[in-house]
Design goal:
- With about 800 residues, the chain is of the alpha+beta class.
- Among the domains are: about 240 residues, no CATH class; about 90 residues, no CATH class; about 120 residues, no CATH class.
- The chain contains 32 helices and 19 strands.
- The strands form six sheets. It has a five-stranded antiparallel sheet with strand order 12-13-19-15-16, with no helix packed on it. It has a four-stranded mixed sheet with strand order 6-5-7-8.
- Helix 31 links the parallel strand 10 and strand 11.
- Helix 7 runs antiparallel to helix 21, helix 9 packs antiparallel against helix 11 and helix 10 runs antiparallel to helix 11.
- It is globular.
- The protein starts with 7 loop residues before the first helix and ends in an 11-residue tail after the last helix.
- This is YfhO family protein.
- Keywords: Membrane, Transmembrane, Transmembrane helix.
- Pfam families: YfhO (PF09586).
- It comes from Pontibacter saemangeumensis.
């Protein structure tokens, strides 16, 4: 292999220009964030801030991690809310790669960077890679999930191209640089802990691996592939090691959460309810089969469930013809109407990869080497089939029931993230192939014409025959009851489909025209790249702006959202150490209450399963005894006349009970909460806690009081004339909570299905509970060791590669 000296203009300047261009694009799209100090009212981020408030306050006050919070669902581990792992250094790498840009801006910037790395690793020029990066980054889903507040999902997706870059580079070119890049990419992908997106990436990698093994066997290079695969395996272990603390605690908690196996049995069957999520819940957001057309035509199904219209819309005209004043009609159509009429319950917008990307993807089927087409097309098809969810029952229910880990994930429509990686990738390979080998590709003009005919033809047919669709939505009945002009709304849905079909057709024809002129030597390769890049950017940018534009950004979003209400102010006058509040209007889909109070409810996608059982069976039925045992002192009513009510009979932080009611199964234990006196009786599953032998306890003159409170530490003082049994209004979680009596470890057990209990001796004593899970300590230690090793390995691999110049395997013989 010939070595050439470093040339700044050739080897560095194009990449620096690319970074500058990406910064400019990011700044242009997110100028309100970067230059006006505005933010988005991202639902999930606001809920996160509410749920994480107690954890963050403790961290700021002590410099330590709480690891537990009592601010949501009575109490739960903080692992999946907001826990720092000091041993994991990957966050510093992310900050460096994003220039520490604020969220939103940083998300898109790093997506551009990672996509660029993938395409440069393939051997593409910086200019073509820049065009490809735009195609990857500005796919509508990347923007829409930011509007919703799915920031960690966005970042996990962003690093998928870097993982693929390292994988491909290690197998086809420089093993050591590729393995280092793979390790860093996977480390950062795992760092943001959105395992569903990592799972989809793993499926794509498996498909890629199967194709590589087939080709290696066919060409006699299986030994070399295995050697390189072994190095990549070590790199993957290092990446997992850096994130081990986060993964280990997540895995431990998952077994106890709604993602784990239920201890309850199916009614009338005696069989345990399966592990993982409920199937109906998991498949609730399933992409419609016809809805797949949004990959090519964005508003094929109306776009958003809350879309704005203008004065040219049929809905506006219908309102004005009904006598509604023009200003009011304009306000109605701009406040957001359910233009989406697809099968999902609602949506913030479609998954649109771009008309030009779809056109080039189809072209790639004809001209790109089968080795690439096979796994990229297979990944795309799998992505679409998974996203169809319940609309393709036979396949997806099988996956849900039998494929390892798949039943832990919900909102299966997000499986289209695979397609938003594979489709631009194949599209750019097709463009690269055309630009490099136009003379060598047989019947290229014909294949170009066929690709235009397929994609443009679909758009043309939709444009011509859009009126044959029903445009009926599940939301229409409510609109009719509210006396909205439903025929006009349906006409606007048709108009959106028709106009976007024509729009996509125009972009396809323009892009094909550019390539045709290049083939006829009317344009240079550089001009063709620039023209296609501009068209791609205009296409995607304009669609993205429908769902996230400057008007969506606001000043002081967090401050305004967390202004205490009169109800909050009344409750905050109570200075007791610990009590709980329930927000009756929206208890289990709101963490705003958790910002100010310890909440019975909250907002989280992985609650403790036992707590969810109590919600489903008792709290949702307003079981007063359950409210009492959860020390629910206040209820926020939502009624302006009486915004706060005192819940009668809250039992406090702990209390002595008179008797134990033994049960012999989780089903009996949960059912026993229906008719019992929480202040006098403790329900105990004696099959799990046989040591609770005594059934009756005297409570005369026995008192107990919480004297010190921290999220991960509780201290009680009690006095009793005789041995007794105390129930604590704290959630039972054995993997980390340890009880102490006068400083000595003692056992405690579960009572009332979700609470802690303890048999205590007579006299005056101190009880402490400390949350110090071994999983966190062990995981963080392994993360630290792995971080050091990863840094050494990456530096060593780069140094070795530069010095040794290992033999390369050409990345492509033909593309």
């Amino acid at each position: 292999m010939t070595t050439t000296s470093f040339d700044f203009k050739r080897d560095a300047l194009p990449h620096l220009i690319a970074v500058l261009v990406f910064l400019l694009l990011t700044a242009a799209y997110f100028s309100p964030v970067l230059f006006e100090d505005k933010g988005l009212a991202q639902h999930d981020i606001l809920q996160f801030k509410g749920g994480a408030k107690e954890i963050q306050d403790y961290r700021e006050a002590t410099g330590k991690e709480a690891l537990w919070t009592n601010s949501m669902f009575g109490g739960m581990p903080a692992y999946l809310i907001n826990t720092h792992f000091p041993g994991d250094w990957s966050g510093y790498i992310h900050s460096i790669l994003t220039f520490n840009l604020p969220a939103l801006a940083g998300n898109i910037f790093i997506t551009l960077i990672c996509a660029y790395i993938l395409l440069v690793a393939m051997g593409m020029s910086a200019w073509l890679a820049m065009v490809g990066a735009v195609a990857f980054a500005f796919t509508s889903y990347n923007i829409i999930i930011l509007e919703a507040g799915h920031n960690t999902k966005s970042l996990t997706i962003a690093y998928i191209p870097m993982v693929l870059a390292g994988l491909i580079y290690a197998l086809r070119r420089n093993l050591w640089i590729g393995a280092a890049l793979f390790a860093v990419g996977l480390t950062l992908n795992l760092h943001f802990n959105h395992l569903q997106m990592t799972y989809y990436m793993l499926l794509l990698v498996i498909i890629f691996g199967v194709v590589e093994v087939i080709y290696a066997v066919k060409h006699g290079t299986i030994v070399e592939l295995l050697k390189r695969g072994l190095v990549l395996g070590v790199a993957a272990i290092l990446a997992v090691g850096v994130n081990f603390g986060r993964l280990y605690t997540t895995a431990e908690y998952s077994a106890h959460s709604i993602r784990g196996k239920s201890e309850l049995t199916q009614p009338n069957s005696g069989e345990n309810i399966g592990s993982g999520l409920d199937r109906e819940y998991a498949f609730n957001w399933s992409y419609g089969i016809g809805e797949t057309m949004t990959l090519l035509i964005p508003d094929f199904y109306g776009g958003s469930s809350s879309a704005t219209l203008d004065k040219d819309s049929e809905t506006y005209k219908a309102f004005t013809s009904m006598g509604v004043p023009a200003a009011q009609a304009d306000q109605i159509v701009k406040q957001g109407l359910p233009m989406y009429w697809g099968p999902q319950p609602m949506t913030s917008g479609p998954v649109y990869v771009g008309a030009i990307v779809c056109f080039l993807f189809v072209l790639g089927l004809f001209i790109v080497d089968r080795r690439w087409v096979s796994w990229l097309v297979a990944g795309t098809i799998l992505s679409i089939m998974l996203a169809w969810g319940k609309n393709l029952e036979a396949f997806n229910f099988f996956m849900f029931d039998y494929f390892p880990g798949y039943n832990k994930f919900r909102a299966v429509s997000s499986a289209l993230v695979i397609a938003q990686i594979t489709m631009p990738f194949l599209a750019l390979l097709a463009l690269w192939k055309l630009l490099r080998e136009r003379e060598a590709i047989k019947d290229l003009e014909k294949k170009l014409l066929i690709s235009v005919g397929i994609t443009g033809g679909i758009c043309l047919l939709v444009w011509l025959f859009a009126g044959s669709a029903s445009f009926v939505s599940a939301a229409d009945q409510q609109l009719i009851q509210a006396q909205f002009p439903i025929d006009a709304i349906r006409a606007d849905r048709e108009g959106l489909m028709r106009s976007d079909a024509f729009r996509s057709l125009v972009f396809i024809v323009l892009a094909a025209g550019v390539l045709y002129f290049y083939l006829k030597n009317k344009l240079s390769a550089t001009s063709a790249i620039a023209a296609v890049g501009v068209l791609l950017l205009v296409d995607l940018w304009a669609v993205d702006k429908r769902y996230l534009n400057n008007s969506d950004f606001q000043q002081n979003v967090v401050t305004n959202y967390f202004q205490p209400t009169p109800a909050d102010q009344v409750i905050l006058q109570d200075k007791d150490l610990s009590y709980r509040v329930i927000n009756l209007p929206n208890p289990f889909n709101d963490a705003r209450t958790s910002y100010f109070h310890k909440s019975v409810g909250g907002y989280h996608g992985a609650k403790l399963r036992r707590y969810q059982d109590v919600i489903d069976r008792h709290i949702s039925q307003n079981n007063l005894e359950v409210y009492r045992m959860l020390n629910t002192r206040y209820a926020i009513t939502g009624d302006p006349k009486q915004s706060v009510q005192r819940v009668p009979g809250a039992l406090g932080n702990a209390w002595f009970v008179e008797e134990v009611k033994p049960v012999k199964s989780p089903d009996e234990e949960l059912e026993a909460l229906t008719m019992f006196d929480a202040g006098a009786t403790a329900v105990v599953d004696v099959t799990k806690f046989p040591e609770v032998g005594r059934r009756n306890f005297p409570v005369d003159n026995a008192t107990i009081k919480l004297t010190e409170y921290q999220p991960n530490y509780l201290k009680y003082e009690y006095q009793a004339e005789k041995e007794g049994l105390v129930v604590f209004s704290e959630i039972y979680y054995a993997d980390g909570w340890q009880a102490y009596l006068d400083g000595q470890p003692v056992d405690h057990f579960r009572a009332d299905y979700i609470l802690r209990a303890m048999q205590v001796p007579a006299g005056k004593h101190t009880i402490e509970f400390k949350f110090a899970p071994e999983a966190y300590t062990l995981g963080n230690t392994i993360s630290l060791v792995s971080s050091v090793l990863l840094l050494l390995v990456v530096v060593g691999a780069i140094a070795y590669a530069v010095k040794k110049k290992p033999t390369e395997v050409p990345i492509v013989e033909k593309v």
